[in-house]
Prior knowledge:
Layout: E1 2-7, H1 10-19, E2 23-27, E3 30-37, E4 40-46, H2 51-64, E5 69-80, E6 90-98, E7 107-110, H3 113-121, E8 125-132, H4 140-146, E9 152-154, H5 157-166, E10 170-179, H6 201-210, H7 215-245, H8 247-250
Parallel strand pairs: 1-4, 1-5, 5-10, 6-8, 8-9
Antiparallel strand pairs: 2-3, 3-4, 5-9, 6-7, 6-10
Helix pairs in contact: 1-7, 2-5
Amino acid sequence: MKILVTFALENEFAPWRAIRDFRPAQVGMTDVYCAAIDGAEVEVIVTGVGQRLAGLRARDVLKANGNSIEVCVSSGLAGAVKREYVIGQVLGARAVRVGDPNDGGTSVVECSSALVSFAQSCGATVVDRFYTSARVIGTPEEKQHIAKFADAVEMESFGVLSEAAESGVAAVAIRAISDLAGENLPLDMDEVFTDKGKVSIPRVLGQVARHPGAVPGLLKVGQQSKTAAEALARFLDHYVAVVAGRSAVLNARGAA
Length: 256
């Protein structure tokens, strides 16, 4: 079975890459990392931050693979918007929403119920919704608002899952919590990303120079992100093996 897994940033993928022999390759126009894991042929792409970039990268790899990819996992880190979730907790969503219901124009893409069930059997907490935001959500007040219609917030899954649905590929969104509902992010994170969705170190340093009091908070977020990424790596390493072992349960490409 071939499984596509997407991450937004290198640091989200790094712990998994450290424990498995992922080899670099190119599929279509996109750089990928490939590994064989307990019966699964895994292709990983680091898309950059944001729904548009993630969707474009996923589309390129899905189309370049023809019909060989059977499962797609949108993965990475997420912010909790409800207080019951803790750092490093792995969540699997039944669906992903884009758009604020209060503003109209919302859309929802459903995840494969079989893949969600497998995630739960591997130890993930199953939740109703992830919210794919167009910007970084950094304050408790914003998170409290999003909690009315979602369980966690991230920035890529809707784009990835939409492309998987278009290609008839069974897909799921799985994320590890890296910041809590009651926490402020220490910097304006929207200002540190390049047009390619990567973190710009000069931009980070520029913000730190302007706001030196943010350093302790920045270090805390870095440690929380590392903890979450490590938990996610352990989960995914087990999960892809379980999915490969239960491929018959999916029954057909894009099974619900």
